């Protein structure tokens, strides 16, 4: 038997079934018309946001990194809860505009921004977190062509990385950001060119559950920002301090202590060097805001035994939930939290493998999981499906097509 990840707080049984937003899994599937289905809960997103606001300093803005989940209704809903939106392509810019975000609240990071993407962002008035001198030069030229001062910040490639981070994006050679040694000269160049200088973006990693690691990284971010600004002789109107707040996906993962992170940050922001005294600070979070608020529901289409191993074969799979299958940046596959949704309060009775419908051995949703006895027609719930699910999975693989999505 292999342990399942912990079911996130906030899910309960109703009439024996998993309920999301007060409605049973089978009622939600009925309304959607079919499985597989992603269901995202407004209540849980609101709750995570409220917990964060309570823990973080008032002075800190909270941005949503929309790559975690760009579903239109969710994007619209979260707009009223957050202070800004972080995007990574012109496609996301368009989705953000359609969801009602104003360009002022949007910042655009990402390596390999094409000229037409820079053009769209500058014309709209979005802040660009430039990732190289080449990109800064192109943005400045586009600004001159458009006769506007582009809003430019520098994304710094920090020399440290977030300890315990799921995906390392800082420290050493990286395609992201400008190496610290090159930052002061580039900052001067941007300011001297008459751009609307916005400051720095320093992102050092993701999916950390260790508060001390985040506290340490945030301390480094403040130190580096002050040092670079001092060297360049520029102000820091805005400092995007990155994010990296993780959620528990696997057995023995424990939730991040946001109270500890908030208290440490409060202290640091209360004792800032002069050069950062007027700075507006922000963190950017994806999975922490939406990951636990989403559930992927898929129906069992077959149940069979092969060499003494029972398989529950579902109509879903890695084409919607690549991360849960263990094929999205994990070294060792471990089980996400999984349940039989329409037998949510039943006792575990057997050990089974839950798999998807794709013709590849990679398509696993739970290995050797201890679950209530389930039959063809029952619903399997995969939790932690609110981030990096639908939009981060190869939906067209094997001609399957996308899952339905629903915000409740
Ligand atoms: C992906 C990404 C995020 C969001 O990461 P989460 O782990 O979902 O919080 C934030 N900032 C940048 C620059 C990213 O690339």
UniProtKB/TrEMBL annotation:
Source taxon at top rank: Bacteria
GO terms for MF: diaminopimelate decarboxylase activity
Active site: 359
Classification via PROSITE patterns: ODR_DC_2_2
TM stretches of this protein: none
Signal peptide positions on this chain: none
Pfam assignment, any one: Orn_Arg_deC_N
InterPro entries assigned to the protein according to its UniProt record, in alphabetical order: Ala_racemase/Decarboxylase_C (IPR009006), DCO2ase_PEP1 (IPR017530), De-COase2_CS (IPR022657), De-COase2_N (IPR022644), Orn/DAP/Arg_de-COase (IPR000183), PLP-binding_barrel (IPR029066)
Keywords from the UniProt entry: Pyridoxal phosphate
Protein name: Pyridoxal-dependent decarboxylase, exosortase A system-associated
Annotated source species: Aurantiacibacter rhizosphaerae
